[in-house]
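Before going further, learn to read the protein records used in this course. The integers have meaning only within a learned vocabulary of local backbone shapes. The record below shows the convention in full.
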Amino acid sequence: MLFGKRQDEDETVVAMLASALRRDISFGVLRPDQKLKIEALRQRYGGSNHSMRETLRVLSAEGLVEATSQRGFRVTSATEEDLRDILLMRLEIEKLGLARSMERSNVAWEGRVIATFHTLRHADAHVQDHPDDLTALEWDEACRALSAVLMEACGSPRLIGLAEKFFNQSRRFRLALLREGHIDFAARQARHNALRDAILGKDTDTALACLEEEIAADLGRNNG
């Protein structure tokens, strides 16, 4: 127990730091291509040199931070090409995950799907009525929960991990759409209703088509 305590503490600190930096990258506080200097980050977020370096390595593995040739770090770029590539990966991975989840579905999973859509509908309404950073963060978490539950029953931890990685990479694009008022919430609700009904109706082809439309809209790649 004694030998494991310090490691557990370090992992907790790194997890907290990673959550804070991940949030600020998503909200654009830390800008695309911005250099990330250890000492400046420590002054802003806390932690030791070691914990901050480990945090940046975690975010680098997630694709949110890149190591530079000078052994430093910077925020990953956010170009149109990056967006297209993230869209491609999300479509391939999440459609495969949903198809497998529907093959393996049971009443318990369907209940979690219904509950998650219900929570997201309330988050949509709340972020429209009270637009601020806190409600945007809650809304984004509800979006993440939907993506996660649709993958949940697929039976592949690695596939779930990949879906989470690319969803996190897409967060700043989605939050930018929210800040700029480019989300049609009525069209979004119609897509969610159609996706939910197709899942519950065990209509895999329609569900996958609805999911593709939703992911594209989530990244601003269609008119919804």
User: Anything to note?
Assistant: Residues 1-5 have pLDDT under 50 and may be disordered.
